[in-house]
């Protein structure tokens, strides 16, 4: 179903202050997009959202690369 969202477990950095900020990046992908929203100053909610319908006959497998830095 389009716009389906899948909640992902967020990354954690044990540093303090600005060094503890975590950014997320999803490599270019036609089917999914990454939605990152701030829950508060210290934590973010990370979701993978479906933006194009999946068709197993068209693409039986999808590989995603999500990077947290």
Automatic annotation (TrEMBL):
It comes from Rattus norvegicus. InterPro entries: Cadherin-like_dom (IPR002126), Cadherin-like_sf (IPR015919), Protocadherin/Cadherin-CA (IPR050174). Keywords: Calcium, Glycoprotein, Membrane, Transmembrane, Transmembrane helix. This is RCG49344. Its main location: membrane. GO terms for cellular component: membrane. It is a single-pass membrane protein. One of its GO terms (biological process) is homophilic cell adhesion via plasma membrane adhesion molecules. Residues 11-69 form the Cadherin domain.
């Amino acid at each position: 179903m389009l716009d389906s969202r899948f909640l992902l477990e967020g990354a954690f950095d044990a540093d303090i202050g600005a060094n503890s900020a975590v950014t997320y990046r999803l490599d270019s992908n036609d089917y999914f997009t990454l939605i990152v929203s701030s829950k508060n100053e210290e934590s973010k909610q990370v979701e993978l959202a479906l933006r194009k319908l999946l068709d197993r006959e068209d693409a039986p497998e999808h590989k995603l690369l999500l990077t947290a830095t």
